[in-house]
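Intended use. Records like the one below are meant for learning the mapping from a protein sequence to its folded structure. Do not use them to infer anything beyond what is encoded.
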Amino acid sequence: MEYFLGVDAGGTKTHALIADETGQAVGFGLAGPGNWESVGYDVLTKNLLVVAAQALEMAKIPIRGVAGAGFGLAGFDWPSQKQAHLDAIHPLKLTCQIEIVNDATLGILAGAAEGWGVSIVSGTGCNCRGWSKDYKHEGRVVGGATWSGEAAGAFDIVLRAMQAVAYEWDKRGPATALTSAFIETTGARDLSDLIEGMYIGKYSLNPNDARLVFQIAAQDDPQALEVVRWAGGELGQMACAVIRQLSLEKEGFDVVLIGSLFDGHRLMTETIGTTVRSLAPNARLVRLEAPPVIGGVVLGMQTAGLDARPIRSKLIETTRILLDNIKE
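Structure written out for the chain above:
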């Protein structure tokens, strides 16, 4: 029996999953954040060692029993960073072939039925990646946030909403229910106090306040709805860029939606769909339901020359059962 290791190292946690060649999940590990940009490479290595040891112990196999490994690493964005990430992985002493990708790519492998397509991430920040039909080419956006025109995460939505509030104050725009929501959450006395307080740093907003924007949008406030529509359009355009890079315009493929913001308001997803299908009419929007670390196992299988598509459903189901048993 051959076993495969998948790792998902993100900004808040690191997961490891081991499954056999039939798709049976047999080992899991959990540790802290693994994005080198926030914790450094030494902590990344430490957490990789922790999760791998946990997963191997649960699976009851040695590290040399791993036949292929796939790593999705937050902060791995450019070829120039590859060797540093491989060096961080080296202490695991894997003897098999490995592959590393940005963690956003794992969502495609875990959530797209055919294991290729596009992923859109919208959480605190945003990202977009693509995987070609032949599994050989990756599409992407810059990942530079505002300066590279990729601003449709939670904080960006809050800032866009705050602009609508500022427009009410200086009469560039109409009144909006966002104003009273932001006054309440900051503790400001009134609109003028809110604007002055934001300017001098007395008050501040944070990504969690995106929930207020969605709540006000659910009340059909036109300005809040426009913010949500704007975010969906931005994310959709990012996906269109990746679709063009990979020449997927005429293909039927999954666009995997990843992140908590997709629970906010249906208009954001609807706008993404309209934008994407204006370029790629056969694209299908799907929400990622499986843990992204499954994508790491799939990547490990592909690296070892195994086609994971026939066992993907079993892998998802057995991982769900394994995680439910761990929680109990």
